[in-house]
Amino acid sequence: MSHQPVHVALAILHQEGQFLLQLRDNIPGIVYPGYWGLFGGHLEPGELPLETLQRELQEEITYEAKQVSEFGCFETPEVVRHVFNVPLTVEIGELVLHEGWDMGFWTPEDIRRGSRYSEKAGEVRPLGEPHQQIFLKFMAEGLF
């Protein structure tokens, strides 16, 4: 029996040189509980990655992305991450966080450090390593 990797669609949301990240709920049993990461989620059966991305952004932060471009596909044996470049065209106050513990803007320095304070968590929380690697590649390519 062969193990099929899970496919997810993720958004690199950016505005004025900063990145909007989600602090995942700190619930045992989920992937990377209590870690910062990209907004997005699992592809539903028959759904294309772009469709998943649009649906997930609506569900998670009530954001309708107008400008979306493919950034890359990052594969491990467990997960295939379809990553999109998504400029954030509204103020953060217009977004409503429906999924996750917190959200906040990260600077490139925060990304390199790999951790950031969360007001809601009341402590510094780490950035998930796969997501940090995706951000570092994105920043190296100067796409924001």
UniProtKB/TrEMBL annotation:
Record GO terms (molecular function): hydrolase activity
Keyword Iron-sulfur among record annotations: no
Superkingdom of origin organism: Bacteria
InterPro entries noted in UniProt: NUDIX_hydrolase-like_dom_sf (IPR015797), NUDIX_hydrolase_CS (IPR020084), NUDIX_hydrolase_dom (IPR000086)
Any one Pfam family match given in the protein's UniProt record, by short name: NUDIX
UniProt keyword terms in alphabetical order: Hydrolase, Magnesium, Metal-binding
Keyword Transmembrane: no
Domain Nudix hydrolase: from-to ranges: 1-130
Cofactor(s) listed in the protein's UniProt record: Mg(2+)
Family, similarity comment: Belongs to the Nudix hydrolase family.
The protein's name: NUDIX hydrolase
Species per Swiss-Prot/TrEMBL record: Phormidium pseudopriestleyi FRX01
Lineage: Bacteria, Bacillati, Cyanobacteriota, Cyanophyceae, Oscillatoriophycideae
